[in-house]
Amino acid sequence: MSELYLKDEDYIANTYTRVHLEPKYGEGSYLIDINNERYLDMYSGISVSLAGHSEKSIIEAIIEQSNKYIHLSNNFICRPAVELAEILVKNTFAQKVFFTNSGTEANETAIKIARKYGKSRGKTKILSAYNSFHGRTMGSLSLTAQEKYQESFKPLLENVEYFEFNNADDLEEKLSDEVSAVFIELVQGEGGVVLADKPFFEKLSILSEKYDFLIVIDEIQTGLGRTGKFLACEHFDIKPDIVTVAKGLGGGLPIGAALLGNKCKDILSKGEHGSTFAPNPVASAAGLAVLKIILKDSFLNDINRKSEYIISNLRKIKNSHPDIINDVRGIGLMIGIDVGEFAQLIKEKAFKNKLLLNTTANKIIRLLPALNISYEEIDRFIEIFSHIIFEINFDLLKL
Ligand SMILES: Cc1ncc(COP(=O)(O)O)c(C=O)c1O
């Protein structure tokens, strides 16, 4: 282990599992380590580096803005933030934006809006789905209905209840006039790349009118082109009241946002919510560069074509090795490969082959590549991945 790894263990709180690679720099879909080895990165900082590593236009935007001002207090208007909000509003259902520094803070904002919306209506409850992930601060964690994240930190926020994802009957059973908001992901990313059902969302819409609750969609992982639409909710016939985004919004710099629909745009009033840092001007300028790339003609269509190409190739590998691959599923460039007990082994073998894979829910290889990954890079991934599966199959046959 290098000296830096030992210092990392000594000086940084031990909450993350480290990959044994010390990056020197990033370049598109590759991370290059201090020994100049090139690793194909198939999860792009868990969906943060949407335009790949070290994208030139993002770097230029960061430098240009840094030369003007790096921080402004919220007493001043901030040009890049206003422009970023305008683009977000003009390209979504939203009418206003509240900026944050992270995904969990965007969800905390939505929780406060839900509480305030409920207050005048006698609504005190918030619902979220089992197996969800909404962040790690206490409010978002209270909505993250997974015991492994919550158990050490109870008691959590009061008046939060859970329903089964994609189960409209269970949702309806938990609903009452006391519910102010339902928080939901369209693909449960941390939960194992589990896709939402269209009929469930149709029912959710109908129920929101019947019980007058806010629909809050957490698109921190699915938003900003990841699923082949600017927001994943555009795949569904649903009108959200709030959508939260973050991850790649700042091209790697920390910025998130709660996108607010008509019902929610003016719920919070002056002084009721805020942040010292958000919206950071440099992150906002980087965000403008990111959105310029994502909203370019044909960029989203290309994502859909690449998605079909990856999924069809993976399904071919699955069909030849059904004992190793249980399922391949996904939408856009958010793809889950259910490999059951082989997940860790595949990840380790991939690393030895200079391929960086992310696993989730213990059994899913989760692909979240840069949205501008090339076909050549995809082919390289498929080649290494199929070789690994072939090797594991070979070892199994020997047993
Ligand atoms: C769906 C979802 N919600 C919320 C979060 C929390 O975002 P952050 O880590 O920026 O606080 C994440 C992070 O992985 C996420 O995937």
Q: Could you walk me through the main structural features you see in this protein, from its secondary elements to its overall organization?
A:
With 399 residues, the chain is of the alpha/beta class. The chain has two domains: 3-55 and 298-398, Aspartate Aminotransferase, domain 1; 57-294, Aspartate Aminotransferase, domain 2. Helix content is 39%, strand content 18%. The chain has helices at residues 3-11, 44-47, 56-66, 79-90, 103-119, 138-143, 147-150, 168-174, 198-211, 281-294, 299-320, 343-352, 375-398, and strands at residues 23-27, 30-33, 38-41, 96-100, 125-129, 160-163, 179-185, 187-188, 194-195, 214-218, 242-245, 256-260, 327-331, 334-338, 355-356, 358-360, 364-367. The protein has a seven-stranded mixed beta sheet, with helices on both faces. Strands 1-2-3-15 form a four-stranded mixed beta sheet. The longest helix is centred in the C-terminal third of the chain and has 24 residues, at 375-398. The chain is globular, with a radius of gyration of 21 Å.
